[in-house]
Amino acid sequence: MIPAATVESVVRAALAEDAPWGDVTSESLLPEGSQAVAELAAREPGILAGAGVFAAAMHAVDPSIEVELLLADGEAFAAGALLARVSGDARGILRAERVGLNLVQRLSGIATETARYVAAVAGTRARIVDTRKTTPGLRALERHAVRCGGGHNHRFSLSDAVLAKDNHLAVLTRGGRDLTEALREARERLGHTVHFEVEVDRVDQIEPVIAAGIDTIMLDNFTPEQLREGVAIVAGRALVEASGGVSLATVAEIAATGVDVISVGALTHSVRSLDLGLDVVVR
């Protein structure tokens, strides 16, 4: 679940951006007190994520608006399926419409794409995980959407775990410092609960990194053949993560190499929002 305070913060910021001084269209066209019923419908199949966020947008504008969620996050739906029904003040519904739709469409797009990746690696040991390549301010929501699609979350922020990437290693080994020794010293400074991951981009870096006692080694932009070699070198001494060059066209082959984790930035940084619509029911 996404913390309620996080959802409220995102929704209120989005509403303030979309209608900073009110909704001049609805306020000039619709008589005060007008009532409406509207239905959230799917225009293409997918996996739902952000139903509660959609409801929160409606309630932030007008707490009296009634929102009936017809599906739960994580559920699959077909084109034409009804996902939610809202009723109440027409001005309020229309003021919240775009913000609610923007969020539930994006989150459902992430969940749907994640589910495709998860299906592609079925039968292997590989987990599909997200990255920090999220929309600023929406990370908690987008990470929730990944879980709705059957994926898993990587570290949430820079504060959660150590992930030494190529730039860190370049500074760390400047002047010819031994990589294994430098990583061991860093490991000793950490608490025993802190996860330690190191990224490498060459096969010859694997053994010096593993020798430092790290928890996960990330093989970045390795070919499938190099991934297999890397998995064999690690030989169970650490978790093996594959990263870089991952797409729906390549993920099954990557998973077949025996890696434990496949991180996919595309789940959040370039996903297409799902086509959902909110239409007023005319009676």
Automatic annotation (TrEMBL):
Binding sites annotated in the UniProt record for substrate: R98, T131, R132, K133, R155, K165, E199, D220, S243, G244, G245, V264, G265, A266
Coiled-coil stretches: none
Domain of life: Bacteria
Catalytic reactions on record: nicotinate beta-D-ribonucleotide + CO2 + diphosphate = quinolinate + 5-phospho-alpha-D-ribose 1-diphosphate + 2 H(+)
Gene Ontology annotations for the cellular component aspect, listed alphabetically: cytoplasm
GO BP of this protein: NAD+ biosynthetic process; quinolinate catabolic process
Domain Quinolinate phosphoribosyl transferase N-terminal: residue ranges: 23-108
UniProt pathway annotation: Cofactor biosynthesis; NAD(+) biosynthesis; nicotinate D-ribonucleotide from quinolinate: step 1/1
Keyword field contains Transferase: yes
Pfam family, one: QRPTase_C
Database matches in CDD domains: QPRTase (cd01572)
Sequence ranges assigned to domain Quinolinate phosphoribosyl transferase C-terminal in this UniProt record: 110-279
EC number in record: 2.4.2.19
UniProt keyword annotations, A-Z: Glycosyltransferase, Pyridine nucleotide biosynthesis, Transferase
Zinc-finger found in the keyword field: no
GO MF term (any one): nicotinate-nucleotide diphosphorylase (carboxylating) activity
Broad class of enzyme this protein falls into: transferase
Family listed: Belongs to the NadC/ModD family.
Function: Involved in the catabolism of quinolinic acid (QA).
NCBIfam families with a match to the protein in the record: nadC
Quaternary structure, from the entry: Hexamer formed by 3 homodimers.
Protein name: Nicotinate-nucleotide pyrophosphorylase [carboxylating]
